[in-house]
UniProtKB/TrEMBL annotation, chain A:
Residues covered by the Myotubularin phosphatase domain: 123-498
Entry keyword Acetylation: yes
Keyword flag Cytoplasm: yes
Pfam families, per the entry: Myotub-related, PH-GRAM_MTMR6-like
Protein name: Myotubularin-related protein 9
UniProt family annotation: Belongs to the protein-tyrosine phosphatase family. Non-receptor class myotubularin subfamily.
SUPFAM superfamilies: (Phosphotyrosine protein) phosphatases II, PH domain-like
Keyword list, A-Z: Acetylation, Cell membrane, Cell projection, Coiled coil, Cytoplasm, Endoplasmic reticulum, Membrane
CDD domains linked to this entry: PH-GRAM_MTMR9, PTP-MTMR9
Membrane topology, record value: Peripheral membrane protein
Location in or out of the cell: Cell projection, Ruffle membrane; Cytoplasm, Perinuclear region; Endoplasmic reticulum
Biological processes per GO annotation: negative regulation of autophagy; phosphatidylinositol dephosphorylation
Automatic annotation (TrEMBL), chain B:
Gene: LOC107663233
Active-site residues, as the UniProt record annotates them: C336 (phosphocysteine intermediate)
InterPro entries: Myotubularin, Myotubularin-like_Pase_dom, PH-GRAM_MTMR6-9, PH-like_dom_sf, Prot-tyrosine_phosphatase-like, Tyr_Pase_AS, Tyr_Pase_cat
A molecular function (GO) term: phosphatidylinositol-3-phosphate phosphatase activity
SUPFAM superfamilies xrefs: (Phosphotyrosine protein) phosphatases II, PH domain-like
Designated name of the protein: Myotubularin-related protein 8-like
Source taxonomy: Eukaryota, Metazoa, Chordata, Craniata, Vertebrata
UniProt entry keywords in alphabetical sequence: Hydrolase, Lipid metabolism
Domain annotation Myotubularin phosphatase: ranges: 124-498
Binding positions for substrate per the UniProt entry: N273, I274, C336, S337, D338, G339, W340, D341, R342
Biological process (GO), any one: phosphatidylinositol dephosphorylation
UniProt xrefs under PANTHER family: MYOTUBULARIN-RELATED (PTHR10807), MYOTUBULARIN-RELATED PROTEIN 8 (PTHR10807:SF36)
Length: 549, 584
């Protein structure tokens, strides 16, 4: 298919662009296969480059022959284009609609994008399971790397290499896989160096209504327990939801069959509920006609903050079991690809200081989200302005980022990255020139030949010139476990994402710059003082003969 | 001291709302001024001090299996949950506290001496002088003058002795207008905006009833209007909801009839009265002290308290004034009922929006002295200092401080002070340790000879100003008028104030502390730098001399007076202290 077929009018003059808190710009609108571009003729700085993939939905309005298109983006921005001429407007609108909803992955921009920078460090090679396993091997010899899933046949959503208990053979793994939803048998998620406890993740066991059991599954998870010790199973669903799952062949671990494990149920919402929550939240953030009461009641009704609180609470619980109780943990929900990953990844941020560095955080996303099979492409197909019936879209990863932001806000000196890094990740999960978040699993990415045909987000982000704006100037490595407060008073609405386009950031940017300035100036001063001291010390020693004539 | 039945109780538990570890047993002490709880574990000693004046209520809860609980609520939003082993002890402490926290006669300030002599005391009270602020605004000038008509508080007993009035307004107009205003609180100058020549004036409601009018009052407003050469009309802002103002008309009070005054534009603002605010805070505090609430409980509670709605209404009114002054160049006359609560909030807030001076540490002191203390905000009643009518108590001043905090969240670089300054002022208002917030008006303070018997707070705050500095403050940004967003979603719950004592809820690392310590380091670093450079200068000379000496080695002996003088200046000790002195 040619993009040209979809572009009915490639170019319109005299288009006026309205953006909140920015002056209006008049210029020429161009449509290309992947971008909507508006450039003013006077000044090249006033340009808009918008990926079609970033467009969530559009609305058309007409007053006389002047058409208006309201473009609502997945990064939550809303812009308005006034287009003279009804026909042009209709053409542009239908072209945008077609181009922003392309079905085929291989037509996505990452397959056409050629980097204008030299790839020094290939992001595709940065985080390979073998490397992570080497780290693990240096701490313990209880685990092995299994190739049982090398052709993705045991579990299509798992990567080809998996870390499993040493004493469990591949055959047992296959049997355990057949007992878990989607073949997602329990695998290692995190090893807590401090006390040797582990966190594992899986999908729900397929006990069904007649209470099926699987000896291999039991053996597999028991193998992670020390003699005489109990472990915790954190089921991210409520007991009622877990009960209902039995009717559909799913279920949860029965005490009788897992006597060494204590099961705890939490109440993280399922993905379709989360999508609803996001839509409501963004709707209330954008409605400026609210009274205070209405705003607070809409915020409450959106349930977004409740979701943040529940996810963080569950992550704290998992971390507590490991660090404070000295027990191993197994986390799962239904499929094990959404709430499970929120919990396991956040628990690691709480427990493991290396996850709070930029590289460590990237590795965490790679490990616990991309390779763990979070279906990014399905979840991020639409954002808060989708008006169609939601299929499998859900802001699961955005909620994770929100939770990370909450921890960052409470521990502003413990992260190597700043808020902008999290916002950047949010943007790239929904629309990007890089392909890191394309596809729903490792298997799909391998099939798409992403590493050969496209550029990884990490190849770009990790360049020093890009990294600079994501560095937290307050960062001081902190080796402690960081326990965030989950009291409602401690959790705030993430303004950087949800009010980003509804406020002027001038004053906040100034404050950030000032902070950077204070820190930089101090470093400089410190260097100067030190070098003066050295000079003096040198002079002093040279002078010693003079002291004792 | 006779109130203290038992000065010391052992084996008392202080219950934590978020129990992190098992609470340990501690000892409770009652002194004449404080309740002190001491927790001693192995090598740490934790002390909790509560000023009796900060206590709002003491409540004995039903006996439990663990002991006898006592709940102490403070005006600083601290909540102490004590558990006694013996009911007898609990009862004794309860009885003692009841008498200690509601003194009938002497307030703490009359006993407190911050180790200052009479001269310090006098200077302390003179440190903030409201008259100076008039000159800072440019008074007297062609439009406004400073008047001493109220020097004996005869025109208005709750006003200050020095007033700003339109130039050449007649005594008859002033007295006539005062008679037509509730409690004689006639229209006077609050703030003169030099750039636009527009003024903010304040008063109380007119005694207009349904039909009354007063020529002098009309003349007074006319004079205020004429004092502004840039705008033909003035705004008259009634900060009350229209319904309340109308109800007042039936009682012979009310609001200005636009027909009787030439060129006024009348406006209601809808800020609720002190009773609504008191109940709102009560509800807010219930939300704050809920035991592990869900997000939904919290947000619903926050909404139902109406607190942020009220904060927004004050902010909206302040914004209205600031906009009128800086955009329309129009003068504004503000009143509510008596003109000492809502009027004080709105006038002082608009001053902060308009004038960067009030955003400094000293400027805020001046503003509080001017708009609140001298204009008769009834601190004694509103804060319940002595055993007063509980219906008079209201968090009007707290709301003002919160508005300033909300502004500082939107404009992090324009205030010289940080959040702790606001919280400290709030604590001090209720502490009654200094005399500033005692009494209801200037006349009353004079009568109880406050300035002779108590000390002023401001020098104390200034002495500790390093704690209250905002490291992000940029003086260069100060010339701007603040235009905050008053969309509901830009108002936040002030956890730092209302949950101040729930440290577990606060960020575990403080950017403010980090930056404050950096700016401290910066000062030290710069000092070291200058010192080092100076020494290097000297060493440089020595160095030069040394080279010289080598050159003239043959002719100049080491004991030559010239070399030894320089040599002395560069003693080993001096450099050593500088090279190893500061630990970077």
């Amino acid at each position: 298919m040619e993009f040209a077929e979809l572009i009915k009018t490639p170019r319109v003059d005299g288009v006026v662009l309205h953006r909140p808190f920015m002056p209006t710009v008049e210029g020429t609108l161009c449509l290309t296969g992947h971008h909507l571009i508006l450039s003013s003729r006077q000044d090249n700085t006033e340009e808009l480059w918008l990926l079609h993939a970033n467009i969530d939905s559009i609305e058309k309005r007409f007053v006389g022959s002047l058409g208006t298109i309201i473009v609502k983006c997945k990064d939550l921005r809303v812009i308005q284009l006034d287009i003279p001429g009804m026909e042009e407007c209709l053409n542009i609108a239908s072209s945008i609609e077609a181009l922003s909803t392309l079905d085929s992955v291989s037509l996505m921009y990452p397959f056409f994008y050629r980097p204008l920078f030299e790839v020094i460090e290939d992001g595709w090679q940065l985080f390979v399971p073998e490397e992570a396993f080497k780290d693990l091997e240096s701490m313990t010899d209880e685990w092995r790397l299994s190739e049982v899933n090398k052709d993705f046949s045991v579990c299509p959503s798992y990567p080809s290499l998996l870390t499993v208990p040493k004493d469990i053979d591949d055959e047992s793994l296959c049997k355990a896989a057949s007992f878990r939803h989607g073949g997602r048998f329990p695998v290692l998620s995190y090893y807590h160096k401090k006390n040797g406890m582990v966190m594992m993740r899986a999908a729900q066991p397929l006990t069904g209504t007649n209470g099926r059991r699987c000896k291999e599954d039991e053996k597999l998870i028991n193998a992670t327990l020390c003699a005489g010790k109990r472990g915790y199973i954190i089921d991210t669903r409520t007991i009622a939801v877990a009960q209902q799952a039995k009717a559909r062949g799913g279920g949860f671990e029965q005490e009788a069959n897992y006597p060494q494990w204590r099961r705890i149920h939490k109440a993280i919402e399922r993905s379709n509920v989360l999508q609803e929550s996001l839509i409501k939240l963004v709707e209330s953030c954008n409605d400026q006609s609210h009274s205070m009461d209405r705003w607070l009641s809409k915020l409450e009704a959106s349930n977004w903050q409740s979701n943040v609180k529940e996810i963080l609470t569950t992550a704290c619980l998992a971390a507590q079991c490991i660090d404070r109780e000295g027990a191993s943990v197994l986390v799962h929900g239904t499929e094990g690809t959404d709430s499970t990953l929120q919990v396991t990844s956040l628990a690691q941020i709480i427990l493991d200081p290396s996850c709070r560095t930029i590289r460590g955080f990237e590795a965490l996303i790679e490990r616990e989200w991309l390779q763990a099979g979070h279906p990014f492409q399905q979840r991020c197909a639409q954002s808060a302005y989708s008006n169609g019936k939601p299929r499998s879209e859900a802001p699961v990863f955005l909620l994770f980022l929100d939770c990370v932001w909450q921890i960052l806000r409470q521990f502003p000196c413990s992260f190597q990255f700043n808020e902008n890094f999290l916002i950047m990740l949010f943007e790239h999960t929904y629309a990007s020139q890089f392909s890191t978040f394309l596809g729903n699993s490792v298997a799909e990415r391998v099939k798409l030949l992403l590493s050969q045909k496209t550029v990884s987000l990490w190849s770009w982000v990790n360049r020093p010139q890009e990294l600079e704006r994501f560095l937290n100037p307050l960062y001081e490595p902190n080796n402690l476990v960081i326990w965030p407060s989950v009291a409602p008073q401690s959790l705030q609405l993430w303004e950087g994402v949800f009010l980003r386009w509804n406020r002027s950031t001038k004053c906040l940017d100034e404050a950030y710059q000032e902070m950077v300035h204070i820190i930089e100036y101090n470093k400089e001063l410190q260097n100067k003082v030190n070098s003066l001291r050295r000079q003096l010390a040198q002079l002093e020693t040279e002078d010693s003969p003079l002291q004792t004539p | 001291m006779e109130h203290i039945i038992t000065p010391k109780v052992e084996y008392v538990k202080l219950l934590n709302r978020y129990p992190e570890k098992k609470s340990v047993l501690g000892t409770l002490y009652l002194t004449a001024t404080h309740l002190i709880y001491v927790e001693q574990t192995n090598n740490t000693r934790k002390e909790t001090w509560v000023l009796h004046h900060h206590i709002m209520s003491v409540e004995k809860l039903p006996l439990t299996a663990h002991g006898c609980p006592l709940l102490i609520r403070c005006k600083t939003f601290q909540l102490l949950h004590l558990l006694f082993q013996r009911e007898r002890d609990c009862q004794d402490v309860y009885q003692s506290l009841l008498r200690l926290f509601q003194p009938e006669e002497e307030l703490y300030a009359f006993l407190y001496n911050p180790q200052q002599n009479e001269e310090d005391r006098r200077q302390g009270w003179e440190f903030i002088n409201v008259a100076n602020d008039f000159s800072r605004m440019g008074l007297s000038n062609d439009y406004w003058e400073i008047s001493h008509l109220n020097k004996d508080y005869e025109i208005c007993s709750t006003y200050p002795s020095v007033l700003g009035l339109p130039k050449n307004v007649s005594v008859a107009t002033v007295t006539g207008s005062a008679k037509f205003r509730s409690r004689g609180r006639l229209p006077v100058l609050s703030y003169f905006h030099k750039d636009t020549k527009a003024a903010i004036c304040r008063c109380s409601q007119p005694l207009s009833g349904l039909t009354s009018r007063c020529v002098e009052d009309e003349q007074m407003l006319q004079a205020i209007s004429q004092a502004n050469p840039n705008c033909p009309y003035i705004y008259v802002v009634d900060t009350r909801p229209k319904l309340n103002a109308m109800a007042n008309r039936a009682a012979g009070k009310g609001y200005e009839n636009e027909d009787n005054y030439s060129n006024i534009r009348f406006q209601f603002q809808g800020i609720e009265n002190i009773h609504v605010m008191r109940n709102s805070l009560q509800k807010l505090l219930e939300v704050c002290s809920m035991k592990s609430p869900s997000m939904s409980d919290y947000l619903t509670g926050l909404e139902n308290s109406g607190w942020l709605r009220h904060i927004k209404s004050v902010m909206d009114a302040g914004m209205f004034l600031a906009k009128a002054v800086c955009e329309e160049r129009a003068s504004v006359l503000v009143h509510c009922s008596d003109g000492w609560d809502r009027t004080a909030q709105v006038c002082s807030l608009s001053c902060i929006l308009l004038d960067p001076y009030y955003r400094t540490i000293k400027g805020l002191m001046v503003l509080i002295e001017k708009e609140w203390i001298s204009f008769g905000h009834k601190f004694s009643h509103r804060c319940g200092h002595l055993d007063t009518d509980p219906k008079e108590v209201s968090p009007v001043f707290t709301q003002f401080l919160e508005c300033v905090w909300q502004l500082s969240e939107q404009f992090p670089c324009v205030f010289e002070f940080n959040e702790r300054y606001l919280i400290e002022i709030h604590n001090q208002v209720y502490a009654c340790q200094y005399g500033n917030f005692i009494g209801n008006c200037q006349k009353e303070r004079l009568e109880i000879r406050l300035h002779e018997k108590t000390f002023s707070l401001w020098p104390h705050l200034l002495k500790n100003q390093h704690l209250y500095r905002n490291p992000l403050y940029r003086r260069s940004l100060e010339c701007t008028v603040l235009r905050p967003s008053t969309l509901p979603l830009h108002f936040k719950f002030w956890c730092g104030m209302y949950n101040y004592y729930d440290r577990g809820m606060h960020p575990k690392q403080s950017v403010l502390d980090q930056l404050l310590s950096l700016t401290q380091k910066q000062v030290e670093g710069e000092r070291t730098m200058t010192e080092l450079q100076r020494v290097r200068g000297v060493v440089g000379v020595v160095d030069f001399v040394r080279v010289e000496r080598y050159l003239t080695d043959m002719t100049l002996s080491p004991s030559h007076p010239f070399t030894s003088t320089i040599h002395c200046a560069f003693t080993k000790g001096q450099t050593q202290s500088l090279t190893h002195g500061l630990d970077w």
